[in-house]
Specification:
With 287 residues, the chain is mainly alpha-helical. It has 12 helices and 5 strands. Strand 1 and strand 2 form a beta hairpin.
Length: 287
């Protein structure tokens, strides 16, 4: 079970860097001292299951952890090697619990169904006091823990209703039109420290959530000023106004015209029957 906190109380705890209890465990915002390891693992938490379905459509119908486990087993059987995605998710879990990560002990806490080792049963984690073994089921991880870890650390989970092929194509086109950046973690931290008029070492005690929010605020302020000055100069006019309309708020997100959710598809093709049920049945015809 989880603490009965309102969304307002959850946000307040995150701002203050306080833990939130869920499934019998205390989840903490990850500190900047672990930022490099956090970056190595966070993309695994954000994997889009619809992209996994390209390898096996069955993954789409499984809970997130179950899909990753099945993919690891399938890949091992086919190639003799593991993908390593599930382990990165588990490392991120241990970072959130502020438990020391011992690879052998952590992976030994993975339990599968006795009659089918391809089906994940649960992950066992020892509580922070070292006395109690807590079982995390795939359903608990998908519905409670994954969203909590993401929220505590400023991670945006993917919307599974979006078409993954179109999203990937749009991202690739955007990247091809940009000048490449030499990414350097130390430079990033120094840049944020400089903008905040503090020393780099002071950031070590920040949470990742705080760092990401501060970095986004810096970007938002600079972009707002650049666009506003460009428009005020009279040399450029934006048809829909300043692309960054506020220095303190993000612009409302909108999907491109090429993207359509399942609910929108159902409404658009109402005469074709229940689109969601057709997808759940794997396509084809039903009586």
């Amino acid at each position: 079970m989880s603490e009965n906190l309102t969304q307002r109380e959850r946000k307040a705890r995150m701002r203050r860097g306080l833990p939130i209890e869920a499934c019998g465990l205390q989840f903490y915002p990850i500190k900047m001292t672990d930022y490099e390891e956090f970056l190595e693992c966070k993309n695994a938490l954000c994997i889009r299951q619809t992209s996994l379905a390209k390898a096996n459509f069955e993954y789409l119908s499984m809970p997130f952890l179950s899909a990753l486990w099945a993919m690891e087993i399938d890949t091992m059987r086919q190639t003799g090697k593991t993908v390593g995605v599930l382990e990165r998710v588990i490392r991120l879990l241990y970072l959130s619990l502020r438990l020391g990560y011992d690879r052998q002990k952590a992976l030994s806490g993975i339990y599968c169904e006795r009659n089918d080792n391809r089906k994940l049963a649960y992950i066992e984690v020892i509580t922070q006091d070292g006395e109690t073994a807590i079982r995390i089921t795939p359903t608990d991880f998908s519905t409670i823990i994954r969203p909590l870890i993401a929220e505590q650390n400023g991670i945006k989970l993917p919307d599974e209703s979006e078409n993954p092929d179109i999203v990937q194509a749009e991202q690739q086109m955007a990247q091809e039109g940009e000048r490449k950046i030499k990414y350097d973690l130390e430079t990033l931290i120094s840049s944020v420290a400089n903008a905040c008029n503090i020393r780099e070492c002071e950031i070590d005690d920040w949470t990742v959530w705080e760092f990401e929010k501060r970095r986004q605020a810096i970007d938002r302020k600079i972009n707002y000023q650049i666009y506003a000055q460009a428009e005020m100069s009279g040399m450029v006019k934006f048809n829909k106004g300043n692309p960054c309309p506020s220095w303190c708020f993000d612009g409302a997100e909108t999907l491109t015209s090429a993207l359509i959710t399942l609910d929108e598809m159902q409404e658009k093709y109402r005469g074709a029957g229940d689109v969601k049920q057709t997808i759940a049945n794997g396509g084809g015809y039903t009586d």
